[in-house]
Amino acid sequence: MLDAHSSLAKPLVLVVEDEAALATMLRYNLEKQGFRVEEAADGQEALTRISETQPDLVLLDWMLPVMSGIEVCRQIRRRPNTRDLPVIMVSARAEDQDAVRGLNTGADDYITKPFNMDALLARMRALLRRSNTVATKATLAFHDITMDLSTHRVSRNGRAVHLGPTEFRLMEFFLQHPRRVFSREELLDAVWGADIHVEPRTVDVHIRRLRKSINGEGELDVVRTVRAAGYALDTEPV
Ligand code: CA
Fold first, then answer.
1. Which pTM does this prediction carry?
2. How far is the CA of 219 from the centre of ligand 1 (A)?
3. N or C: which end of the chain has fewer CB within 10 A?
C-alpha cells in the first residue's frame, strides 16, 4: 500500500515475460511513458504478483514456464477480483488461430512478437481508458459496508477496513452475492480458482481473518456460518 497516493495517477503494468531482455526493454519503455512496472517471469509468479500489487493492466506472454499465459488468463477471468483486469496477450505465434484462442480465454487484446512499441502503447492506453470508465462506477455495498473497486478501499460504518488480498477477494465475492450461502468448495473455485489446489480448511482461516478485520468492536458479525453448508454474507443471527 505504500506510496499508493503519490503514484495513483500512474497506471501499474504487470509485465509477465520470461525473456529477461524483453522484460527489461518493456520496463524501460513503459516507465519512460509514465507507467509503473512490475515483473513476473512465470505464470505462477504472475498470479501472485497480481494479488499482491493489483495492477491496472497485464502484458501476458503466451509461452511461459510453470503455467502458460493462456492458463494465467483463465485464472484471472475466474477470480471475482480480477475478472475485469485488462489483459494483452503477447506471443511469438503468428497464426490467426492462436489469436482467436488467446481472445477466447479472455484476453482483451492480442499482439504478436516482434511488436512495435508505439502500437503496443496505443492498445494499452485504449484498454485502460475503457476499463477506467467501468472501474469508477464499481462500488459494492451491504449493510454498513462499502467496497470501492477502483480504489480498493473498504469501509464499514465510515471506518476504513484493511483487508489482505485474499480477504478482499472473498469480501468482494460475498458482496456480489449477499445472503447466498456458499460451500467451502464454491468459495475456493470462485476466489482462489478451480485449478489451485488448496485445502477447504484454508477457507476457514481466511474467513476468520475477514471477520477479524470487518467486524469492529461491538459490531454485528456480518459473516454467517451455516453448519455443514458453508458461509454467507448476512446480518441474520446464526
Ligand atoms: Ca516466453
1. 0.55
2. 50
3. N
Distance CA 145, CA 165 (A): 17
The rounded distance, in Å, linking the Cα atoms of 71 and 43 is 8
Cα-to-centroid distance, 73 and ligand 1 (Å)? 15
Q: pLDDT of 180-214, one tens digit each? A: 899 998 898 888 876 667 888 899 999 999 999 99
Give CATH 1.10.10.10 domain extents, the chain. Answer: 139-233
Q: What are 94-142's pLDDT values in tens digits? A: 666 666 666 777 888 888 888 899 999 999 998 888 876 555 557 888 9
Look at the domain 139-233 and name its fold. Answer: Arc Repressor Mutant, subunit A (1.10.10)
Using the mean position of ligand 1's atoms as its centre, give its distance from the Cα of residue 95 in Å.
16
Residue with cell 469501509: 155
Locate all alpha helices (DSSP H) within 91-164, ordered by sequence.
96-104, 117-135
- Reported as a pLDDT band with limits 50, 70 and 90, residue 1 is very low
Q: Which CATH class is domain 7-134?
A: alpha beta
Cα 49 to averaged position of ligand 1 atoms, centre (Å)? 17
